[in-house]
Write a structure and sequence with these properties.
Layout: H1 8-19, H2 25-32, H3 36-48, H4 61-68, E1 72-80, H5 85-97, E2 101-106, E3 113-119, H6 122-134, E4 139-146
Antiparallel strand pairs: 1-3, 1-4, 2-3
Length: 163
């Protein structure tokens, strides 16, 4: 059964998980003053209902860049020549299938898409643009912005529970 509302305990649970999903069920239950079985049931219910999409580890971009040379982040605006639903869907499908694309946003007004691309270096970025942008006859305009410094990165959705 899908849950279309969240109570205060659900919101606290979601907030705790998005700040640190590595906590054990016992630690999470203690933090929220729940019994461990109740906590586990709530997490399962929230996951089954789609409130929790997945739990991941956020890796250190700086450490990976030093190890693998992944030092080029680009925010890329893409405007298509034809914006019919089938054209937008086709480009989106190609973009989300490419591992270098970390995020793909369909936006309006302005460009049709904004992509966040992670590449090892400029040569790798060029290969990505060849795959996604140059070979697509429907891509009319591309505008790329290269990150000089990451001032903030967060995957936390503000739930209004912390001051």
């Amino acid at each position: 059964m899908e849950q279309n509302f969240l109570d205060a305990t659900d919101l606290k649970l979601l907030d705790a998980l998005q700040h640190d999903a590595s906590r054990s069920n016992l630690a999470l239950a203690a933090l929220l003053h729940l019994s461990p079985p109740t906590c586990l049931r709530r997490v399962k219910r929230l996951t089954d209902a789609g409130w929790i999409e997945r739990q991941v580890a956020v890796l250190s971009a700086d450490r990976l860049a030093a190890l693998q040379g992944q030092g080029l982040n680009a925010l890329v605006e893409v405007t298509l020549d034809r914006q019919g639903a089938e054209h937008l869907d086709a480009f989106e499908a190609r973009a989300v299938a490419d591992d270098a694309v970390q995020q793909c946003w369909r936006v309006s007004p302005g460009p049709d898409f904004v992509l966040v691309i992670q590449a090892r270096d400029m040569a790798d970025y060029l290969a990505v643009t060849q795959r996604l942008l140059t070979q697509d006859a429907n891509v009319r305009n591309v505008k790329a912005f290269f990150s000089l410094k990451r001032a903030k990165f967060s995957s936390i959705w503000p739930l209004g529970l912390r001051s």
